[in-house]
Amino acid sequence: MPTVQLYGSRKIGPAALPGARLTAHETPESQGAGVAEADAQRGEALGNIGQRAASIGTHLYAEHVDQEKQRADQVALMEAENKLSEWENDRLYNPGTGALNLKGKNAMGLPETVGGEYKDFASSVQEGLTTPRQKEAFAVVAGRRGQSLDLTLQRHVFGEISQYEQGELTKLIDNKKTEAVQNAADPRRVGIALNDALDAFTSSAPRLGIGPQEIEAGKRSITSATHVGVVEQLLATNQTKQAKVYFDEAKGAISGDQLPRLEKALQEGDVRKQSQQQADTIIAAGGTLSEQRAKARQIDDPEVRDSVMARLEHEDAVNEKEQREAAETAMKGVYNIVDKTHDVNSIPPTTWASLTGPQRSSIREYSDRLARGLAVETDIPTYYGLMQKAADDPTTFSTTNLLNYRGRLGDTEFKSLTGLQLSIRNGDRKAAEEAIGGFRTHDQIIKDSLTQYGIDPTPKEGTKEAAAVAELRRRLDANVADLTNSTGKKASNTDIQAQLDKILGTQVNVPGSWWGLLPFNGISFRDSNKRIIDLTIDDVPAPERQEIEAAMKRKNRTATDATILDAYVKKNAAGPK
């Protein structure tokens, strides 16, 4: 177990320091001599400290002043440089007046012009500075910015000049090609124009950064395009022989991808030339189109034969149109004469002799009605027959001379038909469909309904049945028009069908005579009921006809068979209303 030793007895005693020397003599220091010197030294030291403090203060002040001057210089230089930046931004990039907005040749001279303006502006800014040091520093900044400005302008001008030169070069080459093509028949002019284009391209290409290989390719392209244009121009002007000669000479300089097309065009040009010559010969010999086509079939070359056929048919169509237009013009002149004189005898004999029998009949009927002061009455079968033709065969309708029917068409129906015909001739499908759409709708509904009633919907033209169907169409149109006027709405197909069923289901009592005796000459003397579609003007009793005519006269209405029959039906209809 560890043992802690005790300190025991005292180990250190109070013995004296050995060899100590003590004296009592006075020294200058002990007598106070050093005090004055120390005081003097302290005063000198304090004076030195004051001088040093004053020196340090002066230095710090001067340093502070210098810093403030530098700060002022920096602020002034910053302001001056901002003025340069604002001027440059406006002068170069202003959307309306900026120098970099100038394009093409208008950009030329910008470095000199804008550079001069910049120097003047920088000088004015420098004059506004207050110290030489500010002006010296600004001069460095302005010089550096001026160099950058000049570089920006030089780059812009170079780019614009390059684009301008490229554009002008392209236009010159195109113009020279056009010049060559327009003078295709003059090989000398073609050569001069082609050489001018090649010289211009060769001169400008290096400046535009085009390498030697690209220059050669460009020259080949210009040459090929010019030769192709010349050949095509010769073919377009029917100079097939000259085109073949030129092609044979220039073939080696024409791009390979263009050769098959040109060879085919030359072949087509030769076919056209031959077919034109042979077609002219056949047409000059006269004859009908069938006779001319028979001659064309004797041509051995199939391509030439087909082309001759097409030319003959085209020429026939042109002649037919010219004849139709001449006939229409002649008929207009005839009707103008009749409108003024009301007398067919006013028509010149040569003109009258050129008219067909139906045309003369129509003109006489028209003249007679005018002479009696009556408006032309529309013949219902004629009108709806023409509308049916327009719906079924617009091409044939468009070539129909409507003036041949003028004596059987009232003003309203004649204007409607001529307007429809004009729309078809002009290719105005929208207007034509608007004019004939309603008729097509009614036509289909009528045909379907008549078939259900056991009635032939397409009777032979000129028959009693055809007249009855035409009268049915007229009544349906009138009923639908009344319905539209009363409701203010366009009639639907359901409405049209309802009106048609009403007409077909309506019967009229036709009175007999002689107290129901047996029929005489096919006329029944007993009262009978007839469908509206079966009624004719002969079914209207004479007294009622006279009464209807008198009523119409009092109302200044024209009394015709159609209007009389219509009034009779409305008055005596016994069916549903």
Mind sketching the topology for me?
Layout: H1 28-31, H2 33-93, H3 110-127, H4 132-182, H5 187-204, H6 212-236, H7 240-250, H8 259-284, H9 289-296, H10 302-341, H11 349-353, H12 357-371, H13 380-392, H14 394-398, H15 411-425, H16 429-452, H17 464-487, H18 493-505, E1 507-510, E2 528-531, H19 542-554, H20 561-572
Helix pairs in contact: 2-3, 2-4, 3-4, 4-5, 4-6, 5-6, 6-7, 6-8, 7-8, 8-10, 9-10, 10-12, 13-15, 13-16, 13-17, 15-16, 16-18, 17-18, 19-20
Kindly describe this structure:
- The chain is an all-alpha fold.
- Among the domains are: 55-164; 506-577, no CATH class.
- The chain has 20 helices and 2 strands.
- The protein has helices at residues 28-31, 33-93, 110-127, 132-182, 187-204, 212-236, 240-250, 259-284, 289-296, 302-341, 349-353, 357-371, 380-392, 394-398, 411-425, 429-452, 464-487, 493-505, 542-554, 561-572; strands spanning 507-510, 528-531.
- A two-stranded antiparallel sheet has the order 1-2.
- The protein starts with 27 loop residues before the first helix and ends in a 5-residue tail after the last helix.
In percent, how helical is the residue content? 55-70%
Order of helices and strands: HHHHHHHHHHHHHHHHHHEEHH
Q: What percentage of amino acids are in beta strands?
A: under 5%
- Segments where pLDDT lies below 50 for 5+ residues? 513-525
Judging from the principal axes of the Cα atoms, what is the shape? elongated
* Physical arrangement of strands within the biggest beta sheet: 1-2
